[in-house]
Each structure stands twice: as C-alpha cells, then as structure tokens.
Amino acid sequence: MEPVEELIPTRASLLRRLKDWQDEASWQVFFDTYWQLIYGVALKRGMTKTEAEEVVQLTLISVAKHMPGFKYDPALGSFKAWLLNMTRWRISDQLRKRQAQVQLIEEPIEPGPGEGASSAESCGVPPELESLWEEEWQTNLLGAALAKARRRVDPQQYQLFDCYVNKEWPAERVAQTFVVSLNQVYLAKHRVTELIKEEVERIQKEVA
Predict the structure, then answer these.
(1) What is the DSSP letter of 122?
(2) CA dist 198 to 44, 141, 146, Å?
(3) Does the residue 145 lie in any domain?
(4) Are residues 170 and 108 in the same domain?
(5) Together in a domain, 60 and 133
(6) Residue 130 CA: distances (Å) to CA of 63, 156, 175
(7) Which of 140, 168, 200 is the last residue of a domain?
C-alpha cells in the first residue's frame, strides 16, 4: 500500500481504497488533498465562507455515495473533470438556496464516474467556472508538489530556498543569515526547484 503521507497518490489506487467507507486514513488523504481546491473555487464563484464549506462537505458526500459502484475508466474522461462537475452541482445547490423564489435552469442528473462524465465541456460547465477550476487546480498542484519536495530535502536547504525564492531575499542576505556560501544558496534553489518540477510532472500524470 502507498504511504498515507503521499499528498496526491495515484487516482486509481486512492479511489479504489475509497470504496471502503471505513478506510478513514484514505478518506483523510482525499480530504486533505482536495478540500482547498473545492473551497477556493466555491469562494471565487461568489460563495460565502459558510457556503463554500458546505460545498466542500456536500461534494465529498457525493463522492462517497458514488464510490461503492465506482469504476474508473480514463478513456471515458478525467478524474479532474469529474470532480469539477461534482463541485459544480454543489455550487448550483447553494445558488438555489439563495434564489429559492427564482426559477433556475434544471440541472442535469449527476452521472457517476465513467458514466458520461467525459469532460467538463460535455456536461455544460460554464467557461468561467472551468477557468477558475483550472486556476485553483494548478495552485493546489503546486502546493502539493512544494510540500512533498520540502520533505525530501534537508531542512536548512529548504530554508535557503524559501528565503531566496519565496521571500525574495537577496542571495547575499540569505548567505549571511545562514552563514553559508553564495554557491550553497544557488545550489539549494536549483535542488528544490528541480524537485518541485519532478513532483508537478508526477502529479499531473496521476490526476489529470
């Protein structure tokens, strides 16, 4: 079994384990991996924090309901597009609550994974929502890759990278602060950057 620490494990292995509702560890991994993605998109679609939290909860419940009969077939569509549609329906539910007196366009019946969820476009996802989803997906992907890379390098090496790249300190200041050479600062940047690229590529292949 893959280690639980894997931030974004292969879609097939994780989703297979989610068939067991009692597998709390796998469900926790799924939640930790995707809640910020769903929450961020809901907020950008105009939801309040409370509404966005409910979107997260209801989306995860919907995923759970589909798991017992889940059959993942990448030929029929990506997990990424399927999760987008699950989130979209829950956002629509929140809009209905707001506009209870307004007649809205009837939403399509939710297909299960691999049952017609071939793409976001084919299910009528508005372009602006698909754009938001892609933006949040990339942010979530980069965050996961960064966290994984951080665990793979020496703590000081990551600190050098963090101060030089994320905090944008001059290389000289970083070197003086940590009492290292400029070369070590540059090497730390190169090392961590390469690890992040590796993780991004791996994750993209696994959850596309």
Answers:
(1) G
(2) 29, 12, 10
(3) no
(4) no
(5) yes
(6) 19, 39, 43
(7) 140
Q: Are 20 and 104 within one domain?
A: yes
End of a domain among 110, 140, 170?
140
Q: Which two tokens stand for residue 159?
A: 């600190």
Two structure tokens written together for 12: 């097939």
For residue 60, what are the CA distances in angstroms to 68, 123, 158, 164, 176? 14, 19, 33, 38, 48
Question: What's the domain range around 74?
Answer: 1-140
3-class SS at 179? coil
24 & 95 share domain: yes
| Cα–Cα distance measured from residue 79 to residue 2, given in angstroms and rounded to the nearest whole number | 19
Reading the chain (208 residues) residue by residue, the pLDDT tens digits are 333 333 344 456 777 777 777 778 878 878 877 888 899 999 988 888 999 999 999 998 888 887 777 666 666 567 778 788 889 889 888 888 877 645 544 455 455 554 444 444 445 567 778 888 888 888 887 887 888 888 888 999 999 999 999 899 999 999 999 999 999 999 999 999 999 888 887 766 655 4
**Tokens describing residue 133:** 């989803």
Residues 92 and 171 in one domain: no
